[in-house]
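Reviewers of the previous submission asked for a worked example of the structure-prediction workflow described in the proposal, so we include one complete record here. The input consisted solely of the amino acid sequence. No template or homolog information was supplied to the procedure at any stage.
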Amino acid sequence: MSASTDDRSVFPALAAPPQASRWPEVGAHLSAVSARAARLLLRSALALALPLAIFGLWWLATARQWLPEQILPTPAFVWESFEIVWDSGELRVQVQHSARRVAWSLLLGGGSGLVLGFALGLSATLRAYLLPTFRALTQIPVLGWIPLLIIFVGIEEALKLWAISLAVLLPVTLTTLDSIAAIPRSLMEVGRVFAFSRWQTVTRIVLPATVPGLFSAVRQGVMQAWLTVIFVELLASSEGLGFFMAYSRALGQIDLVIVSMFVIGAIGLGIDAVLRLIESRLLGWRRSAY
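From that input alone, the workflow returned the following structure tokens.
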């Protein structure tokens, strides 16, 4: 009687090999997760070191009364003042005024900057006529435009919108232009080989190649708008976070000045964090050296 090759008792060499243990893979994965968590904790600790040191120095200075409380209020008193103005709704109203100005200025200045940057990047004639003058104008700070804007538009809401829009327009235009100038020449040659029209060149080559640069332009515009709106409101405004800070200083309410500073910084950090998150989602394919 012949034995079948399926009989494992007769042909043990043909038996199925034992399954390899998955524990080493699981252990390696856990080690990688632990290493990432440790790096995250280390970065968080390093980032918090300076703010905690400043807060500790502030608390020590007020506890030892190195400065009068009218000049440097205690952290507890500042927190109490924050709760009062937040619960009353006064602080939220001022934030809304500043946020509305930022939104309109981004729409006007940021949109115009993107259009102008694309026009300068795609047209050598426009660059020859406009770019030298435009680069010269970028050397004038926003403060230098304020007197001229007051003459033409007055000191009402139009002044704030024009000043913030100018502050957004300049960096957005130049960043958009630089991102177009950085497109590899080989990509443009591909478009010429396939006889792309101007519209096809823009939609199939220029736009995909400039997405990282365009996002950087928008990000710069948003942050510049937030910084400039506070500056303009400090100079000439009757509402907004900048006005709230200046009015509190005029009344000698240093606790509310500090509250305003913390709110301005917290909103700026929040805007930057949201923009970084969006960038990581949209441009996750990029890899940085560090």
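The chain has two domains: 19-66, 75-282. We consider this example representative of the routine output the project will generate in years two and three.
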